[in-house]
Every structure is written in C-alpha cells, then in structure tokens.
Specification:
Elements (H helix, E strand, L loop, with lengths): L3 E8 L3 E3 L18 H5 L2 E7 H9 L9 E5 L11 E4 L3 H11 L3 E6 L1 H10 L4 E7 L7 E2 L10 E8 L5 E7 L1
Parallel strand pairs: 1-6, 1-7, 3-4, 3-6, 4-5
Antiparallel strand pairs: 2-8, 7-10, 9-10
Length: 172
C-alpha cells in the first residue's frame, strides 16, 4: 500500500512562492543536494495542482520524464507530456485509488491547495519541510487556512551548511 508524502520548500516565514507566484527566490539554494534523488527512488506517482503543473510545463522541459503525474484540475489539458494525466473527480477517490494502486509512494508536490486538500482528507502520511533561511514577507503561503487541524509527530531535523533546515514529520 502506497504512502502519501509532501516534500516541499518554504521560506522561513512560510511562503512557497513570492507575491508574483515565482519560485525564483529558491535559486540561491539549488546547488546543494538535499537528498531529492534518494526521495524520488520511493515515488511511484506525483500529484500536483494545476498552477504547479502550469509553472513546470512553462519551463520548456518537463522535469519528471517517465514518472506518472496526476494533475488535479477543474479544466481540460490540451497538451501534456507523456505520463501526465488530469484528474477532475473526487480527491478522496483519487487518494484511495493511488494508495491501493501506485507502484511506490505518492508525492503530493504542490501547491498549497493540493497539499491542504490531501491533508484535510487525512491522506498525507509524511511531511518533509525544507525551511530556507530567507524572509519573503509576502506571497503564497504553504498552508492555506482550514477548519481541520492536525497533529504531527516529529521524526528529526537535518541542517545544511547553507542554513537550510529539513524538518521531517509523520502526519496524524
């Protein structure tokens, strides 16, 4: 049975994108290996929201070639890379299906709406949060408001020489 994971970077003040929706602020931190390749060895399916998909697709090359990716969207997708499929149905059904059928864990990669929706369903099992030593002051918050809270159990922390801190939690 597949687990659901969130693995995401945030500014110290809790933003995943600046006020223009850009993630370019993360570039100064890109030269360090944070263990992404090891993380991806366990991932069978990516799930992302439409805004995240559109940002990645606009880069000109798809960074997840050969990896199954489901885009949660309310509108059709005219063109998409191989292995990318839209999902317009019920998220609880998607979570149930992926937990049962994904060949590896499911990475809920973003954005904030998708992560919040899967947290509210109780689907996310594990959260790796990379806190970047930068204050954006404004932008897109990682955790959108919700009526549902949630308890996290701390697994550990790792610090990197550039000031980034990885915080790992089990959700629930």
């Amino acid at each position: 049975m597949a687990g659901f994971r969130a693995y995401i970077s945030t500014s110290l003040d809790g933003y995943i994108a600046d006020r223009d929706g850009s993630i370019a602020w993360m570039q100064p931190f890109a030269a360090v290996d944070y263990g992404f390749a090891d993380f991806m060895k366990h991932i069978g399916t990516l799930v992302m929201g439409r805004t995240t998909y559109d940002q990645l697709h606009a880069m000109g090359h798809w960074p997840h070639d050969g990896q199954r990716c489901i885009v949660v969207t309310s509108r059709g997708m005219e063109t998409a890379p191989d292995y990318v499929e839209p999902w317009v149905g019920d998220l609880a059904q998607l979570a149930e299906r992926l937990r049962r059928d994904s060949p590896g864990d499911v990475w809920v990669t973003g954005g904030a709406k998708a992560i919040r929706a899967f947290l509210d369903l109780g689907a996310i099992d594990h959260l790796d949060l990379f806190v970047m030593p930068l204050l954006l002051g404004d932008g897109k918050k990682l955790f959108e408001p919700s009526e549902r809270g949630g308890r996290l159990s701390f697994l550990g922390a790792r610090t990197f020489a550039n000031g980034v801190v990885k915080l790992s939690y089990v959700v629930g």
